[in-house]
Input
Amino acid sequence: MQISTHFTLEELCFSETAARLGLDNAPSAMATANLRQVAVVMERVRTQLGDRPIFVHSGYRSAEVNQAVGGVMTSAHCRGLACDFVCPAFGAPAEVALAILNSSIVYDQLILEYGWVHVGLAEEALVARRETLTKRTPWVAWETGIRT
Output
């Protein structure tokens, strides 16, 4: 189902882990509504990146899928409020993260992770923190800011 010009609900819910392990990754009505908001923000990200294609690695995650991938229990992915992605036609993940950081795009968290960018949104009625973090590998601590 198309939920914005360039994003479908299916791509924002697809999980290789869920498929491999036979886990249900169908979003609730609330998570679906949140994913529509994520799609709006991701359209703004795409525009900021010169209207280049974005490849989603992870959007919504059910609790079971989140646990299987090692996500934190409080992950915005579980509420349909996050998207991990790359945009190779624009540049490396660090370049993508910096482009978002230096834009007017509103996010709760912007994380440069090892191999992709995470954009998380605040829950409805909460103020977005505009928190920026870098995670260079799974085994090192989070760093404050976007570190290239």
